[in-house]
Specification:
Blueprint lengths: L11 H6 L7 E2 L2 E2 L1 E2 L10 H13 L10 H20 L8 E4 L2 H13 L7 E5 L8 H10 L2 E5 L9 H7 L4 E7 L11 H10 L3 E5 L11 H4 L3 E5 L10 E5 L1 H6 L10 E5 L2 E4 L13 H17 L1 H19 L5 E4 L7 E6 L4 H10 L2 E2 L1 E3 L4 H7 L4 E5 L6 H18 L2
Parallel strand pairs: 3-15, 5-6, 5-7, 7-8, 8-9
Antiparallel strand pairs: 1-2, 4-10, 9-10, 11-12, 13-14, 14-17, 16-17
Length: 412
């Protein structure tokens, strides 16, 4: 047993029993699910909550004056409160439910750029996911704004000089990922927010890879907006969150118009609803919101600090074992979130993934929705193993054995 295998923070075997999918086989082998950065698996508690809603109180929210409608509305509003507590926001008014991180960031990008003028600057970085890249790029084009990029250094961290050079008095919006989905880099959001605020810029954070894995405190970070997805943190698909600072949300124009987001509609105009409903037009993803609330209950029971510590153990062990194999390039810094991107010299990442799949090991291969970053790294694709609270060291051993098989098959 290697040195990283010395302690386990919580009982992983008990946790695994809550995830029925982990019992299944793939190509006759036990499933080893290491694609958690793409989406996480769901515990029975979340599956049961969804089942219970449809069997017992399915109704639309905020419109039906009957018992089912009231129960569904109460549960949906409670989900907003649970999410607010989870990230230490003041109240449900700061929590806008969307369909995913992508929609949350589009909402922020459309509404925040509405008042900007030609030549104003937006700063993102070279490591952004397309979700935090394309919306800013397209809106910059549409509104005549300048988009600037913070460079990454050799290690895969944001370059300090580049941060200072790019965030200036001309900057109106800074939008950065909290944790890179390729490099695993944990960005110093608190410090960069300070720099953004000193320059009177609004700070937006893509928390898609952070919220599932570590304690997130929006008050401590002091960011103005923080986006994440339910499906990466044990919740259902179809639910995302945009946390926003109340003073800013109040001033912002809605992103979508229609039912639910209004207080009064007349032939000559419309008065918008209160926060957060002003930004939740149409029938929302009710059960997905409630399901995310249940996922948060589950994560809280284990503890986000503990989950973060456990991630570190798994990542350290995976890197230690990968380094034993010759001809493996690993991308990203030592201190990182729960992802390890790598390449096997002489083998395309897609082939690596296919052989791993034949051994029951699910990883991700490709550009990971970070095509510009791939260019910076000088590759077209990487293989990526990403971990979560139900993964074990034994699964990492299976993964490593499968990487050995890749080398054998390709004779490299
Ligand atoms: C860093 C990061 N941002 C944004 C997203 C987009 O999330 P979604 O597809 O749930 O909108 C992802 C998804 O992988 C991600 O890793």
């Amino acid at each position: 047993m290697l040195k990283s295998q010395t302690k386990t923070i919580f009982d992983v075997e008990t946790i695994r029993k809550d995830f029925p999918i982990l019992q299944r086989k793939v190509h006759g082998q036990p499933l080893v699910y290491l694609d958690n950065a793409a989406t996480s698996q769901k515990p029975m508690q979340v599956i049961d909550a969804i089942d219970f809603y449809y069997k017992n109180y399915n109704a639309n929210v905020h419109r039906s004056i009957h018992q089912l409608g009231e129960e569904a509305t109460a549960k949906f509003e409670e989900a907003h409160e649970k999410i607010a507590d989870f990230i230490n926001a003041d109240s449900h008014q700061n929590i806008i439910l969307t369909k995913n991180t992508t929609e949350s960031l589009n909402l922020a990008a459309y509404s925040l750029t509405a008042g900007l003028k030609n030549g104003d600057e937006i700063v993102i970085s070279q490591m952004e996911h397309h979700s935090n890249f394309v919306p800013w790029q397209q809106l910059a084009k549409l509104r005549g704004l300048n988009l600037k990029f913070i460079k990454i250094d050799e290690e895969g961290k944001l370059d300090e000089e580049s941060i200072k050079e790019n965030i200036t008095k001309r900057t109106k919006i800074v939008s950065l990922t909290h944790v890179s989905n390729v490099l695993g880099t944990i960005n110093p959001v608190e410090e960069i927010t300070k720099i953004a605020h000193e320059n009177n810029a609004v700070m937006v954070v893509d928390g898609a890879q952070a919220t599932p894995h570590m304690p997130v405190d929006v008050k401590k970070l002091d960011a103005d907006f923080y986006a994440f997805s339910g499906h990466k943190m044990l919740g259902p698909t179809g639910i995302g969150v945009l946390y926003g600072r109340k003073e800013l949300l109040q001033k912002m124009q809605p992103f979508l118009y229609g039912g639910e987001m209004i207080k009064e509609v007349r032939f000559d105009g419309t008065q918008f609803n209160e926060l957060p409903w002003k930004f939740e037009a149409g029938t929302p993803n009710i059960i997905e919101g409630i399901g995310l609330g249940t996922a948060i209950d589950y994560l809280n029971k284990i503890g986000m600090k503990q989950i973060h510590e456990r991630d570190k153990e798994l990542v350290a062990y995976a890197i230690e074992r990968l380094k034993e194999i010759e001809g493996i390039a690993i991308y990203g810094p030592k201190e990182r979130g729960a992802v390890v991107s790598f390449n096997v010299h002489g083998v395309h990442a897609h082939d690596v993934s296919q052989i791993l799949d034949s051994e029951g090991v699910a990883i991700r291969a490709g550009h990971h929705c970070c095509m510009p970053l791939m260019g910076v790294l000088g590759v077209t694709a990487t293989a990526r193993a990403s971990f979560y609270l139900y993964n074990t060291e034994q699964e990492i051993d299976t993964f490593i054995n499968a990487v050995h098989k890749v080398k054998k098959v390709f004779g490299v």
